[in-house]
Amino acid sequence: MVDTRLDKMHAMAKRFNDNGTIDQLTMRKIDALAMSAKNEEMTATRIKSIRQREHISQGVLATVLNMSSESVKK
């Protein structure tokens, strides 16, 4: 499943910039934040290493994220 919320929020910020609600400097900051967030894609390996570092199981991670254990396993 692809999470498109960041893309939608970025597009909304661009519209605000186009109509003058957000200035160019703020838009550049938002662009940089959006780019860095996209670079930090969560892979199965990365999630596993975070779980191991924090000493939590898939079930605990699912509870913290308010997800089902099955979603975390996938």
Beta percentage is under 5%
Order of helices and strands: HHHHH
Radius of gyration: 17 Å
| DSSP helix fraction | over 70%
Biggest sheet descriptor: none
Q: Structural class of the helices, strands and pairings?
A: mainly alpha
The oligomeric state is single chain
Regions with little confidence, pLDDT below 50 for 5+ residues: none
Number of discrete helical segments: 5
- Structurally, the number of domains stands at 2
What is the straight-line distance between the termini? Answer: 10 Å
Shape: elongated
Mean pLDDT: 84
- Tally of strands: 0
Organism: Amphritea atlantica
Protein name: HTH cro/C1-type domain-containing protein
Q: What's a concise summary of this model?
A:
The chain is mostly helical and 74 residues long.
Can you describe what's shown?
This is HTH cro/C1-type domain-containing protein. By secondary structure, the chain is an all-alpha fold. The chain has two domains: 5-39; 44-73, no CATH class. Helices cover 72% and strands 0% of the residues. The longest helix has 16 residues, at 24-39. It is elongated and about 45 Å long. The protein starts with a helix and ends with a helix. 0% of the residues are buried.
